[in-house]
């Protein structure tokens, strides 16, 4: 099969004021892939996703999404082109019900029947959300909120899904459930996924390729199975002694 580049970053530099968070990042995500971005605290993983989804503007370098420039293009425009970002910490609307959260996620979808169809698809992926349809988002467990955050992002039927630490703070059972859905979205829907994770073990298990970040730079990249075997990675991120 031919490889189609969905996302490409070349020598991307992003700053917070004077803080140089991304120091020349180059990476690609091909259509149909799950790509994992791993690395320790403060490595720049979240900043990479924010730059990709238009929440931050790179100061230097090029960023293309589906062959078109995406650097500094506003987040809502990028979203309209089929990219959806599940931010770190979930950020669901605590005062809205599960259903209302999903409706907000689909606000750019004008066809009411399609909105309803996507809500039902979300309930298909996450039966727990169906059971809690009228519960306030803020009263749900962390794992349930993460499910809601993902289901909300799916309301626009994205081509590219950005997931920032979906397993953070979740019990092992929820972690399994979330990773199962990631694989399912990729295999059954052909969804392309860029996954940021501190849980490198799980991320490398589901990903096709991976990039390892450290202090704003990419230190290593390759097939996820090879990265998982790498001794320096095992020591730093996979809990090996
Ligand atoms: P973590 O897993 O801890 O979230 P990360 O790899 O996602 O780490 P980033 O959050 O992208 O890392 O942070 C990269 C660098 O940018 C860090 O040095 C961090 O302190 C800095 N940074 C992140 N957010 C801000 C901000 N809002 N203002 C200033 N500096 C920031």
From TrEMBL:
Record keywords, A-Z: Amino-acid transport, ATP-binding, Nucleotide-binding, Transport
Pfam entry (one): ABC_tran
InterPro entries linked: AAA+_ATPase (IPR003593), ABC_branched_ATPase_LivF/BraG (IPR030660), ABC_transporter-like_ATP-bd (IPR003439), ABC_transporter-like_CS (IPR017871), BCAA_Transport_ATP-bd_LivF (IPR052156), P-loop_NTPase (IPR027417)
A GO term for molecular function: ATP binding
ABC transporter domain span: 7-240
Domain of life from the UniProt record: Bacteria
Gene3D superfamilies: P-loop containing nucleotide triphosphate hydrolases
Chain ranges passing through the membrane: none
UniProt record similarity statement: Belongs to the ABC transporter superfamily.
Name by which UniProt lists this protein: ABC transporter ATP-binding protein
Organism: Deinococcus oregonensis
